[in-house]
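**Discrete fold encoding**
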Amino acid sequence: MWSAFFVRAETPTEIVDKLAAAVHKAMTSDEGRAYQATLPSAPLMMGPKELGEFQLREYQRFKRVAELAGISPE
């Protein structure tokens, strides 16, 4: 399981970077770490570029799983 924050595609890079830094700061704070300890998963802590690459890999992986299982969109 994973979750992420998203912004509109036309959001300026400096704003995306500022938001990413704020989320990272919150997640690495004592409070953020305490919250994460209550969850059944571990944080991935990726920046915007890494998250985009991760999402593409996940899409491709699950597309292949669906193809192998004979699942197709209607």
